[in-house]
Design a protein that fits this description.
This protein has 305 residues and is of the alpha/beta class. The chain has 9 helices and 8 strands. It has a single domain, classed as Rossmann fold (3-Layer(aba) Sandwich). Strands 1-2-4-3-5-6-7-8 form an 8-stranded mixed beta sheet, sandwiched between helices. Belongs to the 'GDXG' lipolytic enzyme family.
Length: 305
């Protein structure tokens, strides 16, 4: 990444882009999966838990999870947070800070599953685990309309796929969905992949192609549970989508919004100028990250009742 003498309108984004130069790219080509996973988990150490937030490890349907409970949380609500990482890296630890911040803003406990990942467990293992965790929340007595499902990057795509699988399984939809920079078409198609190729400091089409091939393991890229940008969204819960104006996944966000809108879904898509992939995760350094979380949380609260 080389910004040169680029002058950014946002007061914080330039410093964040400089910070990113000190880390390997998210895709980390040439490294084995264990090394990549360790690197992603280390990122989570940059965002400690908020004061008063309780972390408990538990197992749900055989799936290791973390439950993050903000001080004074409303136990009648729940956030199911699905971490990003290309379906191959990432964990509750890597995304603990972001999940806890969202949970605090909506005043609800967050369940963050350590869902199965490729290459050990390719598609559709992640979808199956996410649905199992949603069933757990229902079994615990949380009303579906009081559950928000959210996730970032691959977790954003998984948020959409989970809602589709919930519908296919005849389960009630959650109260709302919040997809952050969703990776929703594993074929990597759309104008942003070309237009923003030299601007995005975190993702490349080639890197995403590698993750997609690993996750799909020969399965069709056109399966809507793998590429939810291709899905029929009829009957899906209200949906908020955030994407950055400097990330190649902006095309995925727009494609999903179009499909959902044409299916009659209450959908809102926001493309934030100059923002990078999952800028929300940089909320400690980035004012726009804090604003994005707060505004999305207000949107979710309005639908959770």
């Amino acid at each position: 990444m080389a910004d040169g003498n680029q002058v950014w309108k946002d007061p914080d984004i330039g410093a964040v882009r400089v910070l990113l130069e000190q880390f390997s790219a998210i895709e980390q080509p040439g490294q084995d999966w264990a090394t990549r996973r360790a690197g992603m988990d280390a990122f989570g150490d940059m965002s400690p838990l908020p004061d008063g937030c309780e972390k408990v490890e538990l197992t749900v349907a055989g799936i290791p999870c973390e439950k993050l409970t903000p001080a004074g949380a409303d136990q009648t609500k729940a956030l199911l947070y699905l971490h990003g990482g290309g379906y191959c890296v990432g964990s509750p630890k890597s995304h603990r800070g972001l999940a806890a911040r969202l949970a605090g803003e909506i005043n609800a406990p967050a369940l963050v599953p350590d869902y199965r990942m490729a290459p050990e467990h390719p598609f559709p293992a992640a979808v199956e685990d996410a649905v199992a965790c949603y069933r757990h929340l229902l079994d615990e007595g949380v009303a579906p309309g009081r559950i928000a499902i959210s996730g970032d990057s691959a977790g954003g795509g998984l948020t959409l796929a989970t809602a589709l699988a919930i519908r296919a399984n005849g389960l009630p939809q959650p109260g709302c969905l919040f997809a952050i920079s969703p990776w929703a078409n594993l074929a990597q198609q759309g104008a942003a992949y070309e237009v923003l190729a030299g601007v995005d400091p975190m993702l490349t089409k080639a890197g995403l192609d590698e993750f997609a091939a690993t996750y799909l393991n020969g399965h069709s890229v056109s399966d809507p549970l793998a590429s939810p940008a291709l899905a029929d969204y009829a009957g899906i819960a209200p949906l908020l989508i955030h994407a950055g104006g400097a990330e190649i996944l902006a095309s995925d966000a727009i494609a999903v919004a179009e499909k959902a809108g044409l299916a009659g879904v209450d959908v809102r898509v926001e493309i934030w100028p100059e923002m990078i992939h999952v800028w929300h995760a940089f909320f400690t350094q980035l004012g726009a990250g804090r604003r994005a979380i707060s505004e999305a949380s207000a949107w979710m609260n309005a639908r959770l009742g």
